[in-house]
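Incident review: delayed structure delivery

Summary: a single-chain prediction request sat in the queue longer than the usual turnaround. Root cause was a stuck worker, restarted by the on-call engineer. No data loss occurred. The affected request and its eventual output are reproduced below so the record is complete for anyone auditing the incident later.

Affected input:
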Amino acid sequence: MILLTGSTGFIGGNVLRSLSERKVPIRCLSRNPQSSANPDIFYVTGDVLDYDSLVRVTAGVDIVYYLIHMMGKQKEQQKFNILDRLAANNMIRACRVNKVRRIIHLTGMSDPDEILSHHLASRKEVEEIIRKSGIDYTIFRASVIIGRGGGAFEVLDTVVRKFPVIPILDWENTRVQPIYIDDVIHYLVGCLDKIETINQSYDIGCPDIMTYRELMEQYAKAVGLKRLFVRVHGSWHWISGRVLGQLAPVDPNVVYWLIESLRNNMVCEPNDLKKIFGFEPISFEESIRKLV
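Output delivered after worker restart:
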């Protein structure tokens, strides 16, 4: 039995579709009762902030997909850090009670030599809680995930399509290693059959390492738009978050925290994933071709 958290979100929804093809029983955690036409999918009522509900829904569960991350209002970073911590600890405690065998988690990539943004620092803390829980785990870390419905991609798409002149701020040379959504799901679901991934953490990304400016330039070229890039000193993440929060199809609070994280480099450390999974993520250019 698999328990899937975040099943209505961007990542969770894609994981659910992939898992449903395996015809394995799946419980989807939801705060509101739902029904499914698929006999292998069951919606169970619970909340990661309610420990007792997690004890109920993890009973009989072998694997938990923990795909939860809080990103609250712009002036409440301390609050969402606290909620992240509480939710993760609640899940760990419930998993221990019911002897859950493994937790699979997706988080954000980070550079250990940098001061992390609030968003990435909280994600790193949750990762450490899972790693030190005593429960088997597999953790994947990603930077920009390329796919419709993903917050980072939708912000990128909005900037390139709606701004003929794009201001380039202090994050101009921040380096990232994007990855296509299907490749992320390939790892998250494929690791179920890979015992060598148990108690391991991996950075995942395409072969291309690029700056945020190069990311936007290549995306503009791919969608056939000519854009002028103008360097502006400063970070301006408050104003950027405010403007893009109104234009992008993403929660404005999420946009704010994503923009705050643009200062952090997100480049993969070497790993043996190609040997384990037998594939390499597609290039940034190829992933864009699949979307436009």
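Verification: Residues 2-289 form a domain with the Rossmann fold fold (CATH 3.40.50.720).
Action items: add queue-age alerting; document worker restart procedure.
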